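Explain my protein.
***
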Amino acid sequence: MSRIIDISTDTGLSVYLVLVKPTNQNFANFGTQAFETQVDASWDSYDLVMAEIGTSGYYFVEIPGWVPDAEYSYVIYRRGGASPVITDEKLNADTKTISSVVAASSATGNTAAKYQAQLILIQTAIDTALANPKPNYRVGQVTYNHADYINMLFDQQKKLIEMINSSPQESMDTVNGRIDEFGQDLTDYKNEPDL
């Protein structure tokens, strides 16, 4: 279980999530950090903005810690205007058990698998950026340079590969460790994988 909710859709959208308690249909108000009866005029307080990874079309959000662990209903919307409104287009609706408890496989350190999953996301962002180049632009103090963006993605990819290669691998115990006169390893390994 986790506190992350995600969706894959078109790139470049303004996407947000609305969280509802299924037991009483109260909406999470992210401004007041409380659940309340839904009021149309408060709709822009119910939205939790989802971030897109690069231009991959993959959006995610982490549910804030003030939301108790439980099962919730949620709806993901595409914002059509300057602020969220109740008539925005629905992209997805589902339920999820929000939990701060880390799964046992994660807690025991399956770090290489986590890095591998992140590496796949970075590779998708790189492929998308290379296939769909965007023009450089400047708006006020904000500058976007497509080449810098791609270089940043390659740097992240390189760091993830380094972290994968440096994460501890499964170890084997040895018994009767020895090398013959020709330098061949004659060590007996416990739990040695069959080749």
Observations:
- The longest helix spans residues 111-131.
- Residues 104-166 form one domain.
- The two ends are 35 Å apart (CA to CA).
- The mean pLDDT is 78.
